[in-house]
Amino acid sequence: MLGRFLTSGGIRSSFGGLGAGSLLRRTDAMLSRELKSVRSSEVALSSFTFGLLQGRFKSQGGLTVFALPVDLLAGATFHVLGLLNFSRNYSHHLHAFGDGALASFFTTTGYRVGERWAAGSGLVKSLGGMFGDVGREPAGGGSIADAELAKLVKGG
Hints:
Shape: elongated
Structural class: mainly alpha
C-alpha cells in the first residue's frame, strides 16, 4: 500500500489527479495576484503617509530634509535601497514604498502648479515655483538686506 502511494501516479491521485506542474502554475498565479494587491497597498500607504506629512507642514512650505521635499528624498532613497544586494529579498517592497513617496511628491507638486496656473499665472511661470512657494522670502543669505550685506563685506 505504501509503495503505491510513493509512485508518481499515487502522488498525483492524492492531489486529485493534478500534475505537479499544474499545481505549481496555479499556486504561482494565486501568489502573483496576492503580491499585486500587497504592492498596491504599499504604494497607497506610502503615498497617503507622505501626503499627510506634507499637509501637516503646509504652513512651512512642506516638510523638507536638506532643503529637499521629504517625499522626493524618501522616494529616491527607497529605490536606491531596493537596488542594493543586501535588500534583494525586500526590493519589491522598497520599490513600492518609493513609488508611493514619488507619487505623493508629484501629486502635491502638480496640485501647487495647478493652483498657480488657475490663479492667473501662465503655465511656464507656474512651473518655475515647483519646489517651493514663489512669493516666499528665501532662507539663508538671500534674506539679508542690501545694507547689511554691504556692511558685512566692508568688515564693519
